[in-house]
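Let us work through a complete example step by step.
Step 1: write down the sequence.
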Amino acid sequence: MLDGLQWFVDLGAIVVLPILIFVFGMILGTKPSKAFTSALTVGVGFVGLNLVIDLLSSSLGPAAQAMVERFGLNLTTIDVGWPAAAAISYGTVLGSLAIPIGVLLNVVLIILGLTKTLNVDIWNFWHGAFIASLVYALTGNFAIGIAATIVYMMMILLFGDILGPIVKKFYGFPNITFPHGTAAPGFIFAIPMNWLFDRIPGIKNWKADPETIQNRFGIFGDSTVMGFLIGLVIGLFAGYDVAGVGQLAVKTGAVMVLMPKMVALLMEGLTPISEAANEFVKKRFPGRELYIGMDAALSVGHPAVLSSSLLLVPITILLAVILPGNTTLPFGDLATIPFLVCLMAAVFAGNIVRTVIAGSIYMVSILYITSWVAPLVTMSAKAANFDLQGNSSITALAEGGLWTTWMYVGLTKILSWGGLAIIGIVVLVGMIYVNKVLPKKQATQNK
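Step 2: predict the structure and record it as tokens.
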């Protein structure tokens, strides 16, 4: 059964997701023809989204590498990027168990009313597998690795429940949420930062969302032009010739145009299923709502996210140079920065200045955490028979540097089972509050 499930996941997101959407639509009572059309549209949208993300990665990757070489960075830990981290995560027996554990746990928690999130983004269960692999590498205890998987999956569903209303308000996606291991921690990080910004004279009054910037700066505030100009600057920092700078500038401008269009296509397919899910829940569970958990790729097309992310690429490389004690060489995940800050932008209501400042502070913490956790990542890679390609120490910014990784590994290192129990209790209390207590309070206030 486990091999069959792994085979299904290995079909890839562009195949797995439409199948899941079709099955989900049929369960909800959607007509077969409509469910099939919606599922196929989602698949096509995901293909388009991946093509644009690949365009961004293939453009930024070489430019980032050129900047790294130009700065003469000589750091001992290489950032291998999230694809390598995912391969490492699923490369062990413990990691492969994350998928069946995640699916079963999700169903049970929905039945119990402890989550509103139905997470169909099965591929990204690798985040839970990654945490479990690090905990196992730290303790050598298989059982505590399984427990870490369960607690992490519960936590990510809680994040999905909290994010649902924010996703609807900022991105305009009804009944959609992002229980995504890379993106959701940034949302939590941004909340206290936003509180702080609101109390700093000057910054608290700055309006820097894409619309305001465009109104103030005219053509230079247009998101496409902004992408072009940011690509121009990155190309100059990379030391490209005129042709290289021009091509990078046009490609980053193209990403700013194409990404929102691909997201819109994907949402066109998801909307009928989302509406059917809402009706299904209203009939059978009055007073409850259901969110469809999706990849945070849907959120990275926002102009505020893309503009902030492109600005953070050279900033991250600069931080790696100047931070004392940092050993991480940013590389593989520089093009993944949009996923790290996409939900931060939602907290800041699209304010690019706040997103860049908070994102820079976030990247400081990420660089230090990746450096700290690198020995465990390297150990997990060896256990999964991952080719280190001659590197003695590897890490990954997109998961290895997040505060959630620091929390799981740090508390387990200090308190073993007790540390994991603390996280589990906090998550369970949060689920009860968000899904049981808070709805009753809101119902009382609305009377």
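Step 3: interpret the result. Residues 59-208+286-446 form one domain.
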